[in-house]
Amino acid sequence: MRKLALALVGPAVVAVGFATPAGLAEEKVGPGSPATSRELLDCTGAPDRTCNETGGGVVPDSGTVAVYGCSPLEYGGCGESVYEICVGDETELTVEMTYDHVTGVNDLDLFLLDGCDEERCLDHSTMISGFERVIATVPAGNYFAVVDGWTPVGSDGRCDGSGHTILVLCDTACSTVAVDPESWGEIKARYRE
Length: 193
Hints:
Jelly Rolls; 1 helix; 13 strands; globular
């Protein structure tokens, strides 16, 4: 629960925020803007995706992210589907998402993040056609594609349960070479040098 204390300072009223319980971030309030809460993105159990791979999912009925660092839209009413992407070398990373868009029922958006944090947004796509695409030139590493549903305030639209397909396009996937357990001592010795 958010708390707000009001203090009189001369003729003006000043709002003072109190600490919130773990898992909730402080309230963001700007001149003329609605208050929104920033909660951390949950990447636990995110399915892995690699270069030139397609997979699907369903947006859950509840989520934790209200706003993303690269979009002015608010996403408080729907859940997020998170996918972890590993690229093995610098590459142009393209993520495409398709879904069956039904006007007034669902509107899914796509975000590409360079970490498990909604503020670390590299690119986003917020079309309403059933197709979203994000593109970024990235170094080797792990990235997160997030599908989130947007429902306009006051609408009867819903986004939970909306199925979607993710396609990841890039040149160099992360290496998945199996390591012989008997060679662990040699590998550890190399890292100690």
